[in-house]
Amino acid sequence: xxxxxxxxxxxxxxxxxxxxxxxxxxxxxxxxxxxxxxxxxxxxxxxxxxxxxxxxxxxxxxxxxxxxxxxxxxxxxxxxxxxxxxxxxxxxxxxxxxxxxxxxxxxxxxxxxxxxxxxxxxxxxxxxxxxxxxxxxxxxxxxxxxxxxxxxxxxxxxxxxxxxxxxxxxxxxxxxxxxxxxxxxxxxxxxxxxxxxxxxxxxxxxxxxxxxxxxxxxxxxxxxxxxxxxxxxxxxxxxxxxxxxxxxxxxxxxxxxxxxxxxxxxxxxxxxxxxxxxxxxxxxxxxxxxxxxxxxxxxxxxxxxxxxxxxxxxxxxxxxxxxxxxxxxxxxxxxxxxxxxxx
Amino acid sequence: xxxxxxxxxxxxxxxxxxxxxxxxxxxxxxxxxxxxxxxxxxxxxxxxxxxxxxxxxxxxxxxxxxxxxxxxxxxxxxxxxxxxxxxxxxxxxxxxxxxxxxxxxxxxxxxxxxxxxxxxxxxxxxxxxxxxxxxxxxxxxxxxxxxxxxxxxxxxxxxxxxxxxxxxxxxxxxxxxxxxxxxxxxxxxxxxxxxxxxxxxxxxxxxxxxxxxxxxxxxxxxxxxxxxxxxxxxxxxxxxxxxxxxxxxxxxxxxxxxxxxxxxxxxxxxxxxxxxxxxxxxxxxxxxxxxxxxxxxxxxxxxxxxxxxxxxxxxxxxxxxxxxxxxxxxxxxxxxxxxxxxx
Amino acid sequence: xxxxxxxxxxxxxxxxxxxxxxxxxxxxxxxxxxxxxxxxxxxxxxxxxxxxxxxxxxxxxxxxxxxxxxxxxxxxxxxxxxxxxxxxxxxxxxxxxxxxxxxxxxxxxxxxxxxxxxxxxxxxxxxxxxxxxxxxxxxxxxxxxxxxxxxxxxxxxxxxxxxxxxxxxxxxxxxxxxxxxxxxxxxxxxxxxxxxxxxxxxxxxxxxxxxxxxxxxxxxxxxxxxxxxxxxxxxxxxxxxxxxxxxxxxxxxxxxxxxxxxxxxxxxxxxxxxxxxxxxxxxxxxxxxxxxxxxxxxxxxxxxxxxxxxxxxxxxxxxxxxxxxxxxxxxxxxxxxxxxxxx
Amino acid sequence: xxxxxxxxxxxxxxxxxxxxxxxxxxxxxxxxxxxxxxxxxxxxxxxxxxxxxxxxxxxxxxxxxxxxxxxxxxxxxxxxxxxxxxxxxxxxxxxxxxxxxxxxxxxxxxxxxxxxxxxxxxxxxxxxxxxxxxxxxxxxxxxxxxxxxxxxxxxxxxxxxxxxxxxxxxxxxxxxxxxxxxxxxxxxxxxxxxxxxxxxxxxxxxxxxxxxxxxxxxxxxxxxxxxxxxxxxxxxxxxxxxxxxxxxxxxxxxxxxxxxxxxxxxxxxxxxxxxxxxxxxxxxxxxxxxxxxxxxxxxxxxxxxxxxxxxxxxxxxxxxxxxxxxxxxxxxxxxxxxxxxxx
Lengths: 343, 343, 343, 343
What we know:
Number of strands of chain A: 14
Shape of chain A: globular
Order of helices and strands of chain A: EHHEHEHHEHEHEHHEEHHHEEEHEEEH
CATH topology of the largest domain in chain A: Aspartate Aminotransferase, domain 2
Distance between the termini of chain A: 22 Å
Number of helices of chain A: 14
CATH class of the largest domain in chain A: Alpha Beta
Strand order of the largest sheet of chain A: 2-8-7-6-5-3-4
Helix content of chain A: 40-55%
Oligomer: homotetramer
Largest interface: A-B, 52 and 52 residues
Number of domains of chain A: 2
Low-confidence stretches of chain A: none
CATH superfamily of the largest domain in chain A: Type I PLP-dependent aspartate aminotransferase-like (Major domain)
């Protein structure tokens, strides 16, 4: 029997509602390229949830694709984007943004979150015009790549700072559901829309087979976006595949329910580890946790579960990364907790 | 009741075997990024069909993506690609290839097919080195964008010409199934592999939800291709979605069966139109036909069927484009033929 | 003794006035990057000549550099440029424009000149949005690469067409002096400025060591151009070198005098050839002529002069290309004419 | 009377020998694009000085141009370059390298010099293939942007490290003369050639009007470099302008003499400041010095001299930057020293 894997939140297929919808709609003929009825309905539901019918919404296949599309469509050739050093675009996309011609400034942070002072520090060392690249865009992720989330106050402050400095704010929401359903969260999806110029809702890491929903709030960024989607190879002929999935996820708050479930499963494991005395690399309240264990404990857990050993702490101890998903069952969590208790 | 649409071959979802497999495998945990078991099995089946276990096989989402990925991974910055003017990369991809930095030379042809003399003509006017771009790649489609196919002799000759001139040959197989199951075809999939440096098998237009299988034959083009997939935003976290589909399509020759079906449906309609005295814009033997009809006939057919009016011929007549697919039923074809007979 | 070369108009150094100025100003300390006094004065003289003090003027090293800079600064990623097939950017710049990400549409013409109908023809086959690239810029050269020139009516008409169709008009003036001093010309430099959004005055082919003066008329294209110059490696630390040269060329109409001289020398040779009965590949009135000679005549002339054999006409005859320059002396022209007369 | 400027080493024109040569050769007809006799002779002299007749040598206009040309010609799309954070390509070229599609990793250093451990640290955090960009090139400057130089041992060690790790080593020699004639230097030009895959000799900052000589040592990097020069707009029609200058600079070691002169002038000023008790931001032995002065002293010096206030040290003191050049006369240095002594 295979070990259960906590390596990531995209090990399984998709939520059954999506499969049902695919089966149900399969032979219905639809327009291609995102002009199908399902995509239209999904857009309407998102419009309702952000309380803004004017946002432009485009469905694409994945996060790197969404990031490079949005950023390259916004920036002129001499403009750059600011990211945390842990930001997906800075370190985990094989130079995808630079491949479209733009510098990414990586900023060291404690917790994966950009604050106005981080951005200001980049601006401060780029005043020698036109010999230095011009900053025009701030990229953040919520939840971040290290599992942390922005508070309402933090996002509001960063948003205001960007406006004051002529910078656009782009939020990577590959795990936005997890952020907004975290027990520590005080942001709504409507807030996310209001505080950013453009953001996306991640489907791949929250129960879809694939797909991210790019939501463009700022009118200036809406113009002719479809050309960019096509040019970057991101326009699916059968756009219905994305529309159907987001339609199902948006119905009855399934999207948030799945994310909340993944958070809860992680928090149960976290509680068990804490009870056992474990420390953590960082305190997170979403579906990623980074407990510090000794080699013996790690070996023991590896007998029945797969996960990444994330960072060596000292000779004896390492932090591991555990990620739960919409599909992580109570039974698996209970088994893992039992193993923890027996360590 | 909606009209039946002959507008394209991607109006429906996917073949039921694929949906069954998605349901069956849904909760099986798998590695991401194309390292899942299904992708591995699908690769093995393709290896068998091309009779070459050394080819590198990568699954990506769509045709434009496959084209820009392959071409940009091969060419150095000063190199260019030669295509028919009807070639998808020349005219229908929003400048996707140029966006990666490379010129596409468009060559006028009668039938959408490149011959050695077409390529030679481009080479002949680019001898002023280094003031002119250097040609390094020849791009063809089979079946072509206008529904025609290459004969074995034609492909062999073009392949030899490319080798003699230090050019790579890349075959866009968005509709390769239709080409290889055309009644006029004398090529095998193994031939395709042997005569090209790289090609792909299209899934989107032949019964998959999405997906193209890039097959790299030339060892020099294999190196580090995965980096390019990731950088261009083409690497799906749940690569299983592509693997499962190609696994189903490759089993028991389903891929060829679906393509053959789409060809047969088109040929039945063609025969009916011929019997009725229709001329055609070009003589095709795949799933695209271009009959020339008068305005009255077109209006009549439009009452029950959707299709594109493709090209004005004279005051009274236009060519229309009819595309059939794996999902075009006998019942629909019969209905259409009845309409034709009553014109 | 070396043969005199009619191969091009950049075989010699520069006009002596420029050398004198370089010597005279050599140890005067100046700001770098185009902020020197000479560049400022040169800009003022150009402002006077185009009768518009608001134009932005930037000096760069060469024509390909000017072309790629201007075009890439204007276009968004999904936009393209239309050029004659003989246009320098289409065929003689090693894919420089495509290397910045943009498609160049090459249009066949009789005489190297774009007319509204040529542009309209490109627009007509690019209506399938967003699947096709969007045309945004029209590129022309005056004089053209084949020695022809635009009349005032032609340029005005093209300019109006571009405005009506939301297209920018960019004029490559590598040989603008020759165009404006041609005996057939009815355009002024002020007209050029008024009819285009951006153009440049070529120095390299008209008596400078190097340098082109980019003149931006359209306010929307002026913004932050300096960043592009720097990013593309086109910003000279000692911008004075360009400023000094254009200052000398603009003083007392030296620029036009040099161009007129080159035209006159070519016309004298043309007259002698006509008298001798020669035909020409095309009728030109600038410093490039394309007489058709037989092999014996060509051999004879090659004994004392260098030039390109441009195009084979038939078994016995070829067109040659003769280019005169600011430095082509009366003595050389007389010698050449004597040779012609003795053929 | 204008203040004398110590702001940079490109405030004046060029060494008189160059002007003499330009005048002397002005009307001699030459081939374009770097195929002139002067460029050929200059190449021969460089071949002699590096003791290697097989190096490929190309002359281009400036440093940013040389950097973007070399780097973009070497790297495949998924490859990146490592630089010190102070490196010109990382911070002072308006994103020129990223504009060609490649990530630049900026590494913090104490003194502007890259050591193997700096490079190793970048490699260590980029092991997740193919999700992270692949490092392929190391970029260093000598002298560095902060005036420091590499010792023979340091360069040898870095060179060996690069070879061991499959990395190319590229040396930006915008101020290579100053490095090699520093009193602390133990490297020869031949060493530079042997320890790098490609480097360039800067002319612009050492007595030329413009120009850098790119020297390609590694055979694999030589192929078809001319195409890249043309494509990036860096090929001068009158390549003679660059050839003549490097010919003059290479004759009789003028290049090294000019650089040594600039160093000596800086060292005289440094000695005077030291005697006066000044501290320095960093200890340099080339033509850039960074003395720390109080506001009163800075004000006083600014009455007669121009320079940049480089970095605030505390409420009262700032480091200033003084740069001397081939053209900084003894008289000016004496005047400055007198001012220093009177502070």
